[in-house]
Design goal:
Chain lengths: 298, 64
């Protein structure tokens, strides 16, 4: 096996092999667990419908849903050719590749969709730069990823439980991206007309074990590289469940889990897009306009 | 029966490390990057473009 060629300056927060394994492991039973991913895909499809344009060739990064192909291709017909890419071959994509090292030539696509994948990438600016590179001018980039507030309840009680029982904590839940930072990153990587917005969804569960089962089921088990790889232990899980119930349970006894979905939209620059005017190109002086006295009646 | 890589996909594929076009060896079912000295496997028609799953080329396999 050749050595990994990751640029050394980028901290490895996520274990990408573990990301691949988690998704492959989830592939067989994904149908039961992918409701959040389908929901994300559904929202992306809605946004695409609002953009009145045909995309001859599109790349879908993240193959954990069948939703976009069915609706966008067959019903709307706005995407003529869709290439599905994933890190995990178990999800039967058209190509297996890593968005940190996109294997496509420059200007390959009219549209790139990232479907719940950017949250597990180590080098987000690098991935965005790659996406920008493979897009044609005036190409569209749409992404959806879980953001900062996601699973804040679980993160809190699990940390408390581990601290109480083991006297220390190990990162169990991935750090999620901040909405404001993502907007800045889009701009920094050269995307024009960047838009970032979010939608908060609350899913309720009977107990924490069902929530954990769902997370595993959708291929989102722990991928933090620095995690203590040993199983967290039954005692900590039981304590997590107890604290979750105690601190967050709703009147009906069910526990809520917050999912914040962040949506990114950006275009590769093109002269046809709205542009800021060149400095000094104004024909009227603002100072004059402000100083102008109101016309008198006499 | 071996499944071939979609020709339309082949047109836009490049080496993930060097961004140069790849050589498709249909017999061995491999996509070869001479510059990076790597052969990426093709399984059931699906190119696996991951560096950690690629085979390192031996000297005589590399075409200049």
């Amino acid at each position: 096996m050749p050595p990994a060629t990751q640029p050394s300056a980028i901290p490895e927060i996520f274990d990408r092999t573990q990301v691949k394994n988690s998704r492959n492991h989830a592939a067989h039973t994904l149908d039961q667990y992918r409701f959040l991913i389908d929901r994300a895909a559904h929202d992306i499809a809605d946004r695409l419908t609002d953009i009145n344009r045909t995309f001859p060739r599109a790349l879908q990064i993240g193959a954990r849903t069948t939703y976009p192909q069915e609706t966008l291709l067959c019903q709307n017909g706005s995407i003529e050719e869709l290439i599905k890419m994933d890190l995990a071959d178990g999800l039967s994509p058209d190509i297996v590749a890593d968005e940190e090292l996109l294997p496509f030539t420059d200007n390959s696509f009219d549209l790139v969709i990232s479907l719940m994948t950017l949250h597990s990438v180590n080098d987000v600016p690098g991935a965005l730069t790659h996406i920008h590179r493979v897009l044609k001018p005036d190409g569209l980039f749409l992404a959806v990823l879980p953001g900062g507030d996601t699973l804040h309840e679980l993160r809190h009680v699990m940390m408390e439980a581990e601290l109480a029982l083991k006297g220390g904590v190990s990162p169990r839940i991935a750090p999620f991206a901040d909405k404001k930072q993502m907007g800045g990153l889009l701009q920094r990587t050269g995307f024009a007309l960047p838009v970032v917005d979010s939608d908060t969804i609350t899913v309720t569960y009977e107990h924490v074990f069902k929530l954990l089962q769902d997370l595993r089921g959708m291929g989102e088990s722990n991928i933090v590289a620095s995690t203590n790889k040993k199983y967290i232990g039954k005692a900590v899980i039981t304590e997590t469940a107890r604290r979750y119930q105690e601190q967050f349970a709703e009147p009906d006894g069910r526990i809520p889990a917050t999912v914040e979905m962040i949506f990114l939209t950006g275009w590769t620059p093109h002269e046809s897009q709205q542009q800021p005017m060149r400095p000094g190109s104004a024909e009227h002086s603002l100072t004059e306009a402000l100083q102008k006295k109101p016309a008198s009646n006499t | 029966m071996k499944q071939e890589v979609d020709p339309k996909l082949l047109e836009i594929l490049v080496c993930p490390l060097t961004h140069v076009p790849l050589r498709y060896d249909a017999e061995a079912q491999e996509l070869i990057s001479d510059q990076a000295k790597l052969a990426f496997p093709v399984r059931d028609g699906i190119p696996i473009m991951l560096v950690d799953e690629a085979r390192e080329l031996e000297g005589r396999e590399v075409k200049k």
